[in-house]
């Protein structure tokens, strides 16, 4: 069976982590965490929807595409993108073909998905997080409730089943940067985003405003305070599940790029030093090649700096999935940097590989699904 492409971590650590996944992928627990932050409404900060108003329904539309597929009647239209198609399409194809059923969790999005899901709008305040620039993104009580819920869920999962965590949080790469910087990681210039070319200057200025507003510019604040001041609801819930999984010896796949790097960083910051080696050994980040190879960011260096901050070596992989000719133009846009990651696409493409299937076969199935969703391209394009 072919080896996964490592972007961080040792070969020995990768072999140990992959073993339970290759054997137990059929029984993996897949959670898609939907959340929202008013940070997404900042002009020029996100391309997960062409306008701030369209980004309000991004999570709902992606969840509907994930569960209903390209041929289903989806109540919420996918928000317009500068180019390309939602990565929820990739995730749908993987889950459909592997016959793995995800649990969709809504942590207070402005628009709820019209599919089966667990909605937690009243979780100690509910709704979108406030813009990180104000330094009061989440009420402390809500932050603590999310951490407690994540611990309970992580402890209550059936033993022996791998856990895959995915997310959909428009504006979430900005909150990821903010939380990592607030935790003392030199993350500026390394975090990716939904824009074709990450606007590092705009994000850095926003983060600086949030740090000043929260009184965090001198560093040294506790992890919970940083997450409440600058984060989004997905981060504490996912980080607490990582902590519980590590304590129980359960392998975790964080399906995503920079946003899941922030989840890992938050989990390490919250953990007692004695648990950090288990987190690093049992948790791997899985992303797409479009994030791993992006010239405008550096996920591998970001993960090394996270590891250096807490004295561990993170493990991360990039999926082999690529969209080369001939393919639908909306998928070819991935190769041009217009769409890179989201809704667990990278981690689920890795799950596909861990199941023993080939990435070219996945690309062909995605091409068929894209034609169903958007219609076939003109013959001259193919």
Structure description:
The chain has 382 residues and is of the alpha/beta class. The chain has one domain (5-374): Nicotinate-nucleotide-dimethylbenzimidazole phosphoribosyltransferase (CobT), large domain (Rossmann fold). Helices cover 46% and strands 9% of the residues. It has helices at residues 11-24, 52-55, 58-68, 88-98, 140-156, 172-182, 200-214, 223-230, 234-248, 258-270, 276-282, 289-292, 299-310, 329-335, 345-354, 359-374; strands at residues 5-8, 29-34, 102-106, 118-119, 163-168, 252-255, 283-287, 315-318. Helix 4 packs across helix 16 (359-374), helix 5 packs across helix 8 and helix 6 crosses helix 7 (200-214). It is globular and about 60 Å long.
List the helices and strands and how they pair.
Blueprint: E1 5-8, H1 11-24, E2 29-34, H2 52-55, H3 58-68, H4 88-98, E3 102-106, E4 118-119, H5 140-156, E5 163-168, H6 172-182, H7 200-214, H8 223-230, H9 234-248, E6 252-255, H10 258-270, H11 276-282, E7 283-287, H12 289-292, H13 299-310, E8 315-318, H14 329-335, H15 345-354, H16 359-374
Parallel strand pairs: 2-3, 2-5, 3-4, 5-6, 6-7, 7-8
Antiparallel strand pairs: 1-8
Helix pairs in contact: 3-4, 4-15, 4-16, 5-8, 5-9, 6-7, 6-8, 6-10, 9-10, 9-11, 10-13
- Helix count, DSSP H or I runs of 4 or more residues: 16
Shape: globular
The fraction of residues assigned to DSSP E strands is: 5-15%
Estimate nothing, just give the exact number of structural domains.
1
**Please, what is the oligomeric state?**
single chain
According to CATH, the homologous superfamily is Nicotinate-nucleotide-dimethylbenzimidazole phosphoribosyltransferase (CobT), large domain
CATH class assignment: Alpha Beta
**Main β-sheet, in a few words?**
8 strands, mixed
Number of strands: 8
Helix percent band: 40-55%
Structural class: alpha/beta
* Corresponding CATH architecture: 3-Layer(aba) Sandwich
Rg of Cα set? 19 Å
* Uncertain ranges: none
Please state the average pLDDT score: 92
Strand order of the largest sheet: 1-8-7-6-5-2-3-4
C-alpha termini separation = 32 Å
């Amino acid at each position: 069976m072919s080896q996964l492409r490592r972007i961080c971590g040792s070969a020995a650590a990768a072999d140990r982590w992959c073993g339970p996944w290759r054997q137990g992928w059929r029984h993996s627990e897949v959670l898609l965490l939907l959340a929202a932050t008013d940070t997404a409404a900042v002009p020029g900060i996100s391309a997960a929807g062409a306008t701030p108003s369209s980004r309000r329904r991004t999570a709902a539309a992606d969840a509907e595409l994930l569960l209903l597929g390209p041929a289903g009647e989806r109540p919420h239209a996918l928000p317009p993108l500068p180019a390309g198609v939602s990565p929820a399409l990739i995730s749908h194809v993987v889950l459909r073909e592997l016959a793995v059923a995800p649990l969709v969790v809504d942590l207070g999005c402005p628009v709820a998905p019209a599919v089966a899901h667990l909605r937690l709008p009243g979780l100690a305040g509910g709704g979108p997080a406030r813009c990180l620039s104000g330094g009061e993104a989440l009420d402390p009580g809500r932050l603590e409730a999310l951490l407690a819920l994540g611990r309970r869920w992580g402890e209550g999962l059936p033993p022996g089943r791998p856990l895959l965590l995915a997310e959909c949080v428009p504006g979430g790469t900005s909150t990821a940067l903010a939380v990592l910087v607030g935790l003392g990681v030199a993350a500026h210039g390394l975090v990716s985003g939904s824009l074709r070319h990450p606007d590092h200057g705009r994000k850095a200025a926003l983060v600086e405003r949030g740090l000043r507003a929260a009184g965090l510019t001198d560093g040294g604040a506790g992890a919970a305070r940083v997450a409440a001041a600058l984060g989004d609801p997905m981060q504490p819930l996912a980080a607490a599940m990582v902590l519980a999984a590590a304590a129980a010896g359960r392998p975790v796949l964080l399906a995503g790029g920079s946003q899941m790097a922030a989840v890992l960083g938050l989990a390490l910051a919250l953990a007692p030093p004695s648990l950090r080696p288990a987190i690093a050994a049992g948790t791997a980040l899985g992303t797409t090649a479009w994030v791993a190879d992006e010239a405008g960011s550096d996920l591998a260096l970001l993960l090394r700096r996270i590891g250096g901050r807490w004295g561990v070596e993170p493990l991360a992989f990039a999926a082999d999935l690529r969209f080369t000719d001939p393919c639908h133009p909306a998928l070819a846009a991935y190769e041009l940097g217009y769409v890179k990651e989201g809704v667990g696409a990278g981690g689920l493409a890795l799950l596909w590989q861990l199941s023993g299937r080939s990435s070219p076969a996945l690309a062909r199935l995605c091409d068929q699904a894209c034609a169903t969703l958007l219609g076939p391209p003109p013959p001259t394009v193919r």
